[in-house]
Specification:
Helix 2 runs antiparallel to helix 10 and helix 3 crosses helix 10. A seven-stranded mixed beta sheet has the order 4-10-9-8-7-5-6, with helices on both faces. It is globular, with a radius of gyration of 22 Å. Strand 1 and strand 2 form a beta hairpin. With 412 residues, the chain is α/β, with parallel strands linked by helices. It comes from Lysobacter helvus. Catalyzes the removal of elemental sulfur and selenium atoms from L-cysteine, L-cystine, L-selenocysteine, and L-selenocystine to produce L-alanine.
Length: 412
């Protein structure tokens, strides 16, 4: 991982002050934002970077030769370079996208659709987000391939022996979450990708919930594709990227056609640009990606190892306190977890619980979390989810627990 490593211990109070929204009140109560798995909050430097782009540098990229066009292109491509350094990959192997969903659809339609055929299998896990399920369903419907699903152990971790047993010769692709957005489970993706590679299986890793929480070195993971989104890692919405092995990018046809992704267009045919630009048709979210580059720099300034340690400390405190709440059940206790806790309270529907917590100033998510199959596996219609970030505090955990106890008394 070729990122700057801070030498001083972070001042978490000062870092929290970097996030303007966290100072507001909700329903007359101090905001406790425990929904970072849904979207992360943005530090002032990111907000200012987006504002500065529109105020001083606004122009389209890779088109104009004037000063503003050159500045916009430099800033946009600077994000690609910064992400490449952050992830220990080559910048020319990073396709900038609107997020993980677009990235996974790009793999599905540009890599899988031309290759899968009847009798082939796409292997998924029970913990996948809909974005790593639905594209494969659509492709299987068109190609005659089928989906096979690997189940979980009772603690919410992957049953690795069962997963490897499902890696039969008919499996052509494995789609797997690096970190579960519901259970917080951190999957051993390097080991899993190594086993898949031995069997000739192409691996697609959904990294949406990993990049906000930990250092990710894609080169050491050994996957074929890695997708992630920017808005969960302190960047603007509508940003993200797909990393792919160079041989795949060179062999894949464009997903969308239009401007920017071409070398030459004639009515007789088109010569496409080299990857990654081949997959970046049209005007991108330039300002958003400028903000994402700033967000990555901000995270590197803190240090991802420091962030992981901070969130591990917060998660341990949160779990300990939640275990003391009568009638509360945590779903998912894998040995290695990110700071994501799904839970239920006896006698309370998840939506009612989240609504009443909101009145106490506490923001948690309720619902199926874009993971219907996992909810069915767990035998519940919905859960509440408290998801933390490094900008949260131990005092907020105490406030959350107090609100939980109050709401539980109200519900009865």
């Amino acid at each position: 991982m070729k990122t700057e490593t801070p030498t001083l211990a972070p001042d978490w109070d000062r870092i929290r002050a970097d996030f303007p929204l966290l100072a507001r009140e909700v329903h007359g109560k101090p905001l406790v934002y425990f929904d970072s798995a849904n979207t992360g909050q943005k530090p002032a430097v990111v907000i200012e970077a987006v504002d500065a782009f529109y105020r001083r540098h606004n122009a389209n990229v890779s088109r104009a030769v004037h000063a503003l066009g050159a500045e916009a292109t430099e800033a946009y491509e600077g994000t690609r370079a910064r992400l490449a350094q952050h992830l220990n990959v080559a910048r020319e192997d990073l396709v900038l996208t609107s997020g993980t969903t677009f990235a996974l659809n790009l793999v599905a339609y540009s890599w899988a659709l031309p290759r899968l055929q009847p009798g082939d299998v796409v292997l998924l896990t029970r913990m996948e987000h809909h974005a790593n399920i639905v594209p494969w369903q659509l492709i299987c419907e068109r190609t005659g391939a089928t989906i096979r699903v690997a189940d979980l152990a009772p603690d919410g971790s992957l049953d690795l022996d069962a997963l490897y047993a499902l890696m039969a010769p008919d499996v052509k692709l494995l789609g797997i979450a690096h970190v579960s957005n519901v259970l917080g489970t951190v999957n051993p993706v390097a080991e899993i990708c190594r086993e898949a590679r031995k069997r000739g299986i192409v691996t697609v890793v959904d990294g949406s919930q990993a990049l906000p929480h930990m250092a990710v070195d894609i080169a050491s993971i050994g996957c074929d594709f890695y997708a992630f989104t920017g808005h969960k890692m302190c960047g603007p919405t509508g940003t993200g990227a797909l990393w792919a092995r160079r041989e795949h990018l060179l062999a894949m046809p464009p997903f969308l056609g239009g401007g920017e992704m071409i070398k030459e267009v004639r009515y007789e045919g088109t010569v496409f640009a080299e990857p990654p630009h081949r997959f970046e048709a049209g005007t991108p979210n330039i300002a958003g990606h400028v903000g994402l580059g700033t967000a990555v720099g901000y995270l590197d300034g803190i240090g991802m190892d420091a962030i992981a340690a901070r969130e591990g400390d917060l998660l341990a405190h949160l779990t300990e306190e939640m275990d003391r709440v009568e009638g509360l059940r945590i779903l998912g206790r894998a040995p290695r977890k990110a700071a994501v806790v799904s839970f239920l309270v006896e006698g309370a529907h998840a939506h009612d619980l989240a609504t009443l917590l909101d009145l106490e100033g506490v923001a948690v998510r309720s619902g199926h979390h874009c993971a219907h199959p996992l909810m069915a596996f767990l035998g519940v219609p919905a859960t509440c989810r408290a998801s933390l970030a490094f900008y949260n505090t131990h005092a907020e955990i105490e406030a959350f627990i107090a609100a939980l106890r109050k709401v539980r008394r109200l519900l009865g």
